[in-house]
Predict the structure.
Amino acid sequence: MTDQTNFVEIRHAQKSFGTLEVLKDISLSVERGQIVGIIGSSGSGKSTLLRAINDLDPLTGGEVWLDGVQVNQALSHRQYEKHINQMRQQVGMVFQHFNLFPHMTARENVTMAPKMLKGLSQAEADKLAEEQLDKVGMLERIDYYPSQLSGGQKQRVAIARALAMKPKLMLFDEATSALDPELVEEVNHVMRKLAEEHMTMIIVTHEMDFAASVCDRVLFMDQGVVVEEGPPSLLFTNPTQTRTREFLRKHLEGAK
Amino acid sequence: MLKVYPFFLEAAWLTVLLSILTALLGLTCGALGAAARLSRFALLRFLGAAYVSVIRGTPALIQLFILYFGGPQIGIQLDAFEAGVIGLGVNAGAYMTETIRGAIISIDKGQREASRTLGLSQWQMMYKVVLPQSARLMVRPLGVNINALIKATALLAAISVVELTYTAQRYIGSTYKPFEMFLLAGVLYMIIIYVTGRGIAWLDRKVQIT
């Protein structure tokens, strides 16, 4: 239906809040199965770019395509709602603050959307919940409420919730930033497992080591532009841009 | 003195009935008002805001007078009971609009984002995620609204609804005992308010997340 071959394609993405331009003409493509990391200081636009992919933060200019379909189409309200819900079902998203539904157990968090949107029976939904929660190591907490779980456990349930919709693409928006340091690894472990299964992922992160070990490509963003991108082996060890070097140097100092 | 008790009890029941009908109408108006105020249509948002500011900006007694005494002039014929329920119900609805709206908008933005990201529609999100959580936040403040509304039924004495306050006034004429008559009415109001308050507190405990 289009000439485009890439799985995710962002063309000339532009986003302004009033006079503040947070994304300045960014183009990016991601192949199926690829894992792309986005790094940069806060305010660089990396989360905004990620959130534009499922139109959570709509762009003010440019296009987002997923698997040959344009995500941010200009449609009438009714048509847009139908279209975007269809698109979003194919894109899982994991947030910094988990955003689990506090009035539902882990099981209900995982099964609510599949039951509602895909018409799963209770038996099918239970099987799905067990499968997905087992995958993130949370099966024994299946009937716990979010308030009874630690941060790392909440985030693992949130990942299971996203995976239960069988997405083609997973977006991670600083998934470990709100966690206590000792809880980060359990979430990273789950993300590594997804990487091994060749899930296509776009990961906004502050963790350079994790990005270096998991991502096929890393983008460094600053002030609304992609300053530099490349395989982590190059970007982290031999950055060509001054701004990238500055950022990495500050980050290393911060880590010490 | 003893002779008046049956009349007071009867009037107290009428006050209870008025309170229930007014609360039901108020909740309905409040839900509609909140929906209007949160609508994506500017006209509905405007109408919702206008409803709230007009009703909250004028005395309930004036609203009742306009409806009951002024109504016939523009072709609205209501008896005192009907005018009372409608007038107070619409009045309470304006306060409830703000209560319900407040409880809905106080739900964390992340909850909406997570719902929409999963592919839920606006309605599915409201029904499954936002309302179940905001309902818990609404119970107590709606209880405050209902408390106010029960006491506001006393205003209906002014349009000759034979509720508690009217009854107290009526028997002052024959007994010459305003202190006792008003005290008795006050005690009965307090019993109604106390029982309602316990009911609200029970409901509030019931809906909290385990």
About this structure: The radius of gyration of chain A is 18 Å. Chain A has a mean pLDDT of 91. Residues 181-196 of chain A form the longest helix (16 residues). Chain A has nine helices and ten strands.
